[in-house]
Amino acid sequence: MSSEPQLSGRRIQVIGVTGAGKSTFARRLGQELSIPVCELDSLFHESRAGGALPEDDARRSVQALVESNDEWILDGNHWVQLKDVSYNKATDIIWIDTPLPLTLWRVITRTIWEVLTIPGVLQRELSGNSLIAMSLRVRAKKHANWSKRVTTDSRWKRLSGWYGRDRFLARVRDMLRAS
Prior knowledge:
Keywords: Kinase, Transferase
Mean pLDDT: 87
Order of helices and strands: EHEHHEEHHHEH
CATH topology of the domain at 11-98 and 147-178: Rossmann fold
Strand content: 5-15%
Low-confidence stretches: none
Number of strands: 5
Number of helices: 7
Protein name: Shikimate kinase
Oligomer: single chain
InterPro entries: Cytidylate_Kinase-2, P-loop_NTPase
Helix content: 40-55%
Strand order of the largest sheet: 2-3-1-4-5
GO molecular function: kinase activity
Distance between the termini: 18 Å
CATH superfamily of the domain at 11-98 and 147-178: P-loop containing nucleotide triphosphate hydrolases
CATH class of the domain at 11-98 and 147-178: Alpha Beta
Structural class: alpha/beta
């Protein structure tokens, strides 16, 4: 029997630090399971495409998805703001816990790409609101908090290491083939 975590249901919240690969994992899992995926950062934060929604509108968008679907994947760390909307209804909270070197590589390459392609990002990075610095600041705190949750809430699953996401997705594919 595998010691890797298994899915308990199909109402899934995917979390992880900046650069963990939450969005990629959530999209791939959604494709495997054929269920809708909502990228919370696109609702709650300014994106490449434009501004964020006001928080009440973002909550309503998530609530509409959750109430109109028995199965869903939410990708992002907004579970505290959405505790009453989605977190308490989630069957699985999947923490993508990638190694620091991989996370840093992703954040640095993303930042370089954004500096080269998005107006204003260089000023953000130089102003003290650096994505790289922020990701390092919050990593240890989130890691400690989430490590406790994994041991106290059976819905929490931790996918760690360089290939934790890939191993989990392979098991999901195997499970679907067997059913």
